[in-house]
């Protein structure tokens, strides 16, 4: 259900979420690039160019797509066989449906891929209640076919350096809520993500669920963005239930999440160089300043 109809139903919580690596256990675009594109090494080299500001996320992703040697229809079949959802995401969807909590997927991937995977892995009935906002596809001459390797390409959602600036979807919600005079009717906006491309979206919500072990957490600490960590959707469901019922305040969840992160990170070894994913990269002008 698109904005503003979502707000008109007066939900207590609206949940926005990333798709690749957040709802899924593997990144779909990285998977196709590694096995049916230019491979892991070139993908990681491209990631580094994006991270140091030499290239944009949008351009780096386009290069990945241009390397794919499978038509879209075959690609979807491959992903349906190899990609799994977080084992607890379905439980979250069932609870959200029962408690009238809208779920909005905001992704840097493509709508046909996401829709196909959700239909396959969740079932058509459950996925119908999930709104998907992402990039799309377009036919390319001369083949003009999703069944041909060169017959299609991505159609980016907007003109930003990300290709899809997720904050553009959330901001109207935040602005409309800010104008509400009855505080009891103001819904809480939550977001789940795992990469720095999720940062612009996180700024627009009341609380971010940031996947443990990813650099998004570091950026949130530096920018003062309220967050809590999650390993899987069981913890997201548990905390969202408490926020929805009023058992826990957003501040309490964020304080506990920060304490948990600092305790865990003190005993966790640093990630190996070059192992970050595409979504953990910002262009130079978008990257928060690093404080030593």
From TrEMBL:
Positions with biased composition (Polar residues): 277-286
Keywords: Hydrolase
Domain of life: Eukaryota
Alphabetical list of SUPFAM superfamilies matching this protein: HAD-like (SSF56784)
Pfam family, one: HAD
Positions of the UniProt region annotated as Disordered: 256-292
Presence of keyword Endoplasmic reticulum: no
Stated name of the protein: Phosphoserine phosphatase
Source organism (scientific name): Lithohypha guttulata
Record lineage: Eukaryota, Fungi, Dikarya, Ascomycota, Pezizomycotina
């Amino acid at each position: 259900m698109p904005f503003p109809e979502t707000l008109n139903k007066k939900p207590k919580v609206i949940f926005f979420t990333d798709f690749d690596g957040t709802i899924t256990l593997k990144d779909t675009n990285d998977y196709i690039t590694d096995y049916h594109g230019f491979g892991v090494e070139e993908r990681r080299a491209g990631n580094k160019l994006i991270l140091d500001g030499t290239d944009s996320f949008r351009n780096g992703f386009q290069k990945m797509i241009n390397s794919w040697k499978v038509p879209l229809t075959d690609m979807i079949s491959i992903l349906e066989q190899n990609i799994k959802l977080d084992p607890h995401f379905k439980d979250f969807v069932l609870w959200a449906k029962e408690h009238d909590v809208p779920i909005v997927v905001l992704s840097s991937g493509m709508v046909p891929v996401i829709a196909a995977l959700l239909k396959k892995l969740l079932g058509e009935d459950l996925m119908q209640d999930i709104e998907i906002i992402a990039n799309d596809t377009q036919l390319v001459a001369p083949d003009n076919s999703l069944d041909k390797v060169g017959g299609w390409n991505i159609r980016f959602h907007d003109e930003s350096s990300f290709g899809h600036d997720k904050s553009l979807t959330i901001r109207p919600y935040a602005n409309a809520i800010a104008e509400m005079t009855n505080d009891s009717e103001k819904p809480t906006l939550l977001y789940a993500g795992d990469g720095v491309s999720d940062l612009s979206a996180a700024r627009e919500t009341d609380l971010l669920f940031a996947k443990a072990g990813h650099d998004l957490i570091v950026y949130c600490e530096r920018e003062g963005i309220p967050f809590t960590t999650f390993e899987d959707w069981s913890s997201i469901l548990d905390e969202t239930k408490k926020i929805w019922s009023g058992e826990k305040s957003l501040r309490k969840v964020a304080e506990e999440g920060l304490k948990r992160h600092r305790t865990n990170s003190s005993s966790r070894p640093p990630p190996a160089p070059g192992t970050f994913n595409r979504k953990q990269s910002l262009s130079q002008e978008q990257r928060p300043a690093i404080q030593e």
